[in-house]
């Protein structure tokens, strides 16, 4: 798998909500030019919940084509329906994705056994696709426990997990429990440095959308165990790590990219543009981190 900074890429849109393909190309090139190690396409930050299946697959394919093998592409193909997740994963495999990202099913709140069966079934249905699990209980209302991940680590094509719990001790325990079988990545920008210093292989990052080079350098330093350099870069990025979550992701990061002149102001309902009282805070964070 990839080591380093994996950007959870936004999906730029026109004001009417249609996908803005030219801006998407611009973002892909921006990340490659600034050292991002891999792209996660159409995950939570990419507004997967509001893209229909055809758009979802078209966006993944568009990103893969634009990347053209220059860095790996991980396709977001999860869902709260096992059948839908299999269909999306199969489509992403045919499109040429290097791996897929499978979020814990949301809303229907399965048991731990249900989670195990869900991910095992997807892995067996698309055996040639490398799969990264994604645990983000703050968004899904369902927490996949470490014990369940340990069970899943025995399945050959389940090779990684994005741990977005923000709980570093728990993540460190998981790293030790699955060592040699499954790689752990952070999915929480504010705590990513510490988890990488504890053995995580990288960070699936929202902050990387606006500060790709600094995040790539931070990940490289932290994975190498260079705490001094990692702390220097982490301090630089911490204002963004905090302020890009003032409202639900990806509302603040899309506003930040618009402020940077990278994309327009398109979002899909029920998401709305960043509330005006937060504009100054996000802009100040962009300036403090050297982005503006």
What does this structure look like?
- The protein has 292 residues and is an alpha/beta fold.
- The protein has one domain (4-227): Aldolase class I (TIM Barrel, Alpha-Beta Barrel).
- The protein is built from 12 helices and 8 strands.
- The chain has helices at residues 21-33, 53-67, 82-95, 112-125, 137-140, 146-152, 168-177, 192-197, 212-223, 227-243, 251-259, 279-288; strands at residues 4-8, 38-41, 73-76, 99-103, 131-135, 158-163, 183-186, 202-205.
- It has an 8-stranded parallel β-sheet with strand order 7-6-5-4-3-2-1-8.
- α1 crosses α2 (53-67), α2 runs parallel beside α3 (82-95) and α10 packs antiparallel against α12 (279-288).
- The longest helix is centred in the C-terminal third of the chain and has 17 residues, at 227-243.
- The radius of gyration is 18 Å and the shape is globular.
- The model has no long low-confidence stretch (mean pLDDT 97).
């Amino acid at each position: 798998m990839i080591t380093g900074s994996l950007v959870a890429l936004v999906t730029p849109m026109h004001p009417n909500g249609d996908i803005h393909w030219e801006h998407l190309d611009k973002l892909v090139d921006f990340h490659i030019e600034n050292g991002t190690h891999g792209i996660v396409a159409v995950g939570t930050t990419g507004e997967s919940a509001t893209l229909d299946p055809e758009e979802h697959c078209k966006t993944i394919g568009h990103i893969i084509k634009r990347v053209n093998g220059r860095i790996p592409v991980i396709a977001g193909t999860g869902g709260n329906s096992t059948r839908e997740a299999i269909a999306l994963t199969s489509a992403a495999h045919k499109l040429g994705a290097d791996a897929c990202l499978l979020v814990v099913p949301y809303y229907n709140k399965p048991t731990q056994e249900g989670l195990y069966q869900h991910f095992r079934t997807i892995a067996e249905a698309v055996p040639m696709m490398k799969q990264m699990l994604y645990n983000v209980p703050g968004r899904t209302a369902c927490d996949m426990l470490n014990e369940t991940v340990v069970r899943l680590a025995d399945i050959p094509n389940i090779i990684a997990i994005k741990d977005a719990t923000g709980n570093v001790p728990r993540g460190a325990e998981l790293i030790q429990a699955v060592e040699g079988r499954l790689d752990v990545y952070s999915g929480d920008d504010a705590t990513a440095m510490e988890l990488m210093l504890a053995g995580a292989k990288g960070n699936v990052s929202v902050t990387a959308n606006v500060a790709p080079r600094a995040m790539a350098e931070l990940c490289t330093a932290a994975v190498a165990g260079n705490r001094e350099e990692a702390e220097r870069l982490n301090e630089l990025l911490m204002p963004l790590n905090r302020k890009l979550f003032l409202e639900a992701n990806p509302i603040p990061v899309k506003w930040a990219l618009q402020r940077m002149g990278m994309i327009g102001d398109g979002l899909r309902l029920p998401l709305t543009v960043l509330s005006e009282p937060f504009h100054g805070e996000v802009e100040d964070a962009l300036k403090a981190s050297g982005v503006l």
